[in-house]
Structure prediction request, 215 residues.
Amino acid sequence: MSSSFELTAQTRKAFGTRASRRLRRLENQIPAILYGAGEPPLAITLSHNQVLKALENEAFYSHILTITVDGQAQKAVLKDLQRHAFKPRILHMDLLRVTAKEKITMSVPLHFKGENVAPGVKEAGGVLAHLLNSVEVRCLPDALPEYIEVDVSRLGLDEAIEGLELLALSHDDDLPVVNIHLPRAATESETTVPESAEVPAINVKDAPAGDKDKN
Prediction:
């Protein structure tokens, strides 16, 4: 994994809704909890600006983080993140400690390559649909991938990539990851315009000879 993330934290001593609001509003800190690895949960605070900058990198969500708490470095992964409903504010974070010998379950993003050259798109005019943007994997921390690459360069129209051997897909349901289909407008039933009905000609019979003007 190419990215590296290091966050500085302090032990949190004040608890409750009022204390958390003070941390966020006056001290620009994020209340968080660090737990797991057979150790008791530890309430900490993180710099909001430092976390917000780190979150700009997609790898932060599926990466082993270094959390230095009161000078002591610990390895952890992000398990939960609470955001404000409409403000660019982080309200709370859950961080799971990791150890080298204990497997972890994480959601890893999918990166698709070859979309522009896929026959179903380039030749048939189809649209590539990402049915999954991330998948869950279970592995040791050192083996955790930053992302999983999916090659769709040979995918044709109405074809799908299925059956990745991953935790989320290891059940009986064989879920498709991506497929190519025609745009909706092209797949809608074509409306056949009815041909104009022929109007039968009106036969005008000649009037009997006796009814014609004799002038």
Remarks:
- The mean pLDDT is 80.
- The helical segments are 17-26, 48-54, 119-122, 184-187.
- The CA atoms of residues 2 and 146 lie 8 Å apart.
- The radius of gyration is 32 Å.
